[in-house]
Amino acid sequence: MSGDSRCTDLQLKFLRIRGKNNQERRRDQQKQQNNNKRHDPTTRREEGGRVEKKESKLVNPARRKGDKRK
């Protein structure tokens, strides 16, 4: 433990009982935020990866229902 941490042993014990320390909590929160961003259809990824939002193509209604003829 570094000296600047203000957690007492008792608080640390309760944190362990609850399951995660602050670093793990922060990491999980970050993962969750990234996950939400990734699956949000309104956002585009700025990192230069795939563009998640796709323009919907006009689909022939017969093809959509499973008719495979072209």
From TrEMBL:
Top-level taxonomic group: Eukaryota
Record region (Disordered): 1-70
Biased composition range(s): Basic and acidic residues: 21-30, 37-57
Name of the protein in question: Uncharacterized protein
